[in-house]
Amino acid sequence: MSNIHCFCNLSPKAIADLIANAKQRVLYAAPSLTLEIASALAGRFETLKSQCQIILDYNEQLFRLGYGFNDAVDLLIEQKVPVRKQPNLRLGCLIVDDSGWAFAQLPMAVESQDSLEAINAIALGEDQILQICKALEAKGGDPHPIKNDHSDQPGSTGDPKDYPQVGISVTTLAAQEVKSVSQALKENPPQGFDLQRKVRVYQSHLQFVDVSLEGGRVQQRRIPLSKELKSVLFSAASKVEQRFNANYRLVDGATSSVLDEINKDLTELLDASAPSLGKRLGRVLLRSNRRHFDDELAKLRARLEAYRTSEKQKLQDAIEKSLSDLAETLAPMIRDRPPKYLQARCSEVTLDIARDYLLDQLRKSAPSADVLMKGLQLHCTYKDVTWEMLNDKEYQTRIRKEFPYAEWLKPFHEEIAAGSKRH
Question: Are 4 and 99 in contact (CB under 8 A)?
């Protein structure tokens, strides 16, 4: 062990090479494994038999994250190589003859396991190797991992001996379980891991953002006339004329200068901070600008709130005037041709009664200023980049055009989805 560095890189290929050259024993314990490691283990098992031990955390989700491949486990099962199953195993351990390493298995959805730059292993000393071998050969103990931190419990000193020991399971992985997981992965295969890594890079830098000002066109709001009113007011009109006269503009007048200014500032903010990739794709925002963007939206929302407070009564007065004007205009028609409902409730339909009746009916259809102002909202929705989006040719073209100076984007200027690998 003296010629072995303490910290080192232990890639799947290096592990497979070490196993293939084992003379006395092999012990491999890790979340999962690759095909090259499985092939080396199957080859050494023919010679070493019980001195070749394999312990895995067999879990469908591990394969979706890229800790290994189910095909590799399937190869061991087909070769009748026994595999022990230890749930929630996250640390890797490799012992070959008199040498040993503790290593971290890199999930391929985050980083390639073939990276020669990753320092993912620590060489073990002779005493550590002996203790690990004894622990893995033990037949007792609790096979479940420790769930709680006991450092804050009464009587705990923080000494490692105070923590409950975890026994490694001796349960053999069943072929039927492997078959079931194989079928699940076949029906819903994991995404290519290189593409997942690219998605993560994009997600760390970009977000889609959808911003809309709802309810800002109060002056264009119309109210529908009731069926009873339409039958009286347009009884002599054709069906086409009825369709053109079935609703009424709620308030009249020019749009609010305050809302116009808010809309203008919102448009400027979006154009400056969240460039559009086109109507279909929408706008994207650099995550590094997210805080500034949220702050500016908060200012716009505050201005909207101030507008709602100051203009609500003015709007309600405008609505009342509009409805009164309409009732005044239509009252003679109701007086001359009163609906059956009104005829049944007064002996004579006067102009004042007709006007009051119309106001009652119109108020039932018209929203109040309070309702309209509550509907005046600035909405903002963020969405992450997906791997489906990275496959979109228009998205790739637009991103390169809008972010030509982004250093993080340069490695992905090639066709992103081409050559996506599963291994």
Answer: yes
CA angle 224, 230, 235 (to 5 degrees): 155
Of the chain, the end-to-end C-alpha distance in Å amounts to: 32
Q: How far is CA 65 from CA 2, 61, 117, 198, 214, in A?
A: 36, 6, 21, 14, 40
d(CA 414, CA 166) in angstroms, rounded, equals 48
Q: What is the DSSP string of 273-318?
A: HS-B--TTT-EEEEGGGHHHHHHHHHHHHHHHHHHHHHHHHHHHHH
In terms of DSSP H, where are the helices of 93-189? 126-137, 175-187
Q: Where are the domains of the chain?
A: 7-190, 196-412
CA 24 – CA 27 distance, rounded (Å): 11
Q: What pLDDT shows up at residue 47?
A: 94
Phi, psi of 229, deg, nearest 5: -65, -45
Q: What pLDDT, in 10s, does the model give residues 184-233?
A: 988 888 767 777 777 777 888 889 999 998 876 666 667 777 777 777 76
Which class would CATH give 7-190?
alpha beta
Whether 165 contacts 134, CB under 8 Å: no
